[in-house]
Amino acid sequence: MKITEQEVRYVAGLAHLQLTEQEVGRMAHDLDEILTHVEKLNEIDTAGVAPMAQVLYQAESNATLRPDTPGATLPNETALANAPLSGSGQFKVPRVIER
Questions:
Q1: Angle at Cα 56 formed by Cα 50 and Cα 60, nearest 5°?
Q2: Given this model, what pLDDT does residue 57 score?
Q3: Is 82 within the bounds of a domain?
Q4: Considering the domain boundaries, does residue 71 fall inside one?
Q5: DSSP states of 26-53
Q6: CA atoms of 80 and 88, how far apart (whole Å)
Q7: How far apart are CA 10 and CA 16, in angstroms?
Q8: Residues facing 97 on adjacent strands
Q9: Do the domain assignments include residue 49?
Q10: Domain housing 38
Q11: Number of domains the chain contains
Q12: pLDDT tens figures, 23-73
């Protein structure tokens, strides 16, 4: 499968990434290699293999979950202490949707 530089630029635009020409070329090559590998994996016959829900070990379905118990929270002043910009007891961030 061949990924074009135009496709890389399109996906980078969707992700709000600014890539240099060198990065666009490298990403096109890397993504092409990844998709080529996935195509090879798709050639493997998995007809007799059961789907796996837990890949680590056989256990109960909730074995890796912990109980959801409330704990102590940070005071507002402590949470905002290292914020680059805060006001009115909240984090202030720059606008991210400007298109």
A1: 80
A2: 62
A3: no
A4: no
A5: HHHHHHHHHHHHHHHHHTS--TTPPP-S
A6: 11
A7: 10
A8: none
A9: no
A10: 5-42
A11: 1
A12: 999 999 999 999 999 999 889 998 888 887 656 666 666 666 777 889 999
Question: Residue 96 has what pLDDT?
Answer: 81
pTM: 0.49
- Asked whether the beta carbons of 19 and 50 are under 8 A apart, the reply is no
Give yes or no for a contact between 1 and 35, defined as CB atoms under 8 angstroms apart: yes
pLDDT for residue 95: 81
- Determine the Cα–Cα distance for residues 21 and 27; give it in Å rounded to an integer: 10
Q: Helices (DSSP H) in 1-99: which residue ranges?
A: 5-14, 21-42, 76-80
Q: Which amino acid type is present at position 18?
A: Q
Q: Which amino acid is at 31?
A: L
Give the amino acid at 78.
Answer: T
CATH number, domain of 32, equals 1.10.20
Residue 12 in any domain: the answer is: yes
